[in-house]
DNA sequence: GTGTCAAATCGTGATATCGCGATGTCACGA
DNA sequence: TCGTGACATCGCGATATCACGATTTGACAC
């Protein structure tokens, strides 16, 4: 399993260095805590509008937040029709945890 | 052992979200890789000027970087006379590693 | 097609970070 | 006491991030 590069580490830390983005990643651990949706959250992820509602930010801000998390490879986006669903990328998150104490 | 608060997590991630600061924390794992000093690095930490030299930044920038890491509780400063020595705070770093995958 | 809703992108002012030189503060030695 | 060296802080312009409303794109229903 490939390790994270320094650039990947920095962008992941930057993404987590914001209280709302950090909270969102925590919320996504339990996708079923969000309102129900056509496709279950633990399969495809949580719909953006539900994330937006809980974070209490505008649509554009919510979209930006998720784009930042996605660029850092911390979440995976699954688009179904008009809906974007986001779920955690446990692979990257685990590698990040290993990096701390290892490389860092 | 007390866990890190959300604010502490955010400020730690912010501090690590910069390539130079991230590199510095890695360098401090081996204090003896720096030039020799009166008091050994693995006891009191590395003198600021050595960090500055390796990071190749101005004195004020180096001081700011270390202040940021210190505010995030990622390093500990030991002042001896005129010299500020910095070493890793393994306690916080370990707690940060545990937080990922746990809270996060 | 037309309208509508979801989401991404654009454009923005406000705010924060970056990195530096200049200045201030403190410890030491002559 | 005066100078010097080490470090922190201040003040600054440059740049990036933040959060939003407005606009655009794309998917769907009719």
TrEMBL record, chains A, B:
> The HTH arsR-type domain covers which part of the protein?
1-104
Q: InterPro entries per the record?
A: ArsR-like_HTH, HTH_ArsR_DNA-bd_dom, HTH_MetalResp_TranReg, WH-like_DNA-bd_sf, WH_DNA-bd_sf
The answer to keyword Transmembrane helix applying to this record is no
Q: Which GO terms describe its molecular function?
A: DNA binding; DNA-binding transcription factor activity
Q: Which UniProt keyword terms apply here? A: DNA-binding, Transcription, Transcription regulation
Q: What is this protein called?
A: Transcriptional regulator
Q: Which organism is it from?
A: Cryobacterium mannosilyticum
């Amino acid at each position: 399993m490939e390790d994270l590069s320094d650039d990947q580490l920095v962008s992941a830390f930057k993404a987590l260095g914001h209280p709302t983005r950090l909270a969102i990643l925590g919320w996504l651990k339990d996708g079923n805590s969000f309102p129900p949706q056509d496709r279950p959250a633990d399969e495809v992820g949580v719909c953006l509008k539900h994330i937006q509602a809980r974070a209490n930010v505008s649509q554009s801000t919510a979209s930006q937040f998720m784009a930042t998390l996605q660029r850092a490879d911390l979440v995976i986006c699954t688009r179904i029709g008009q809906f974007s669903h986001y779920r955690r990328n446990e692979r990257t998150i685990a590698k990040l945890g290993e990096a701390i104490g290892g490389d860092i």
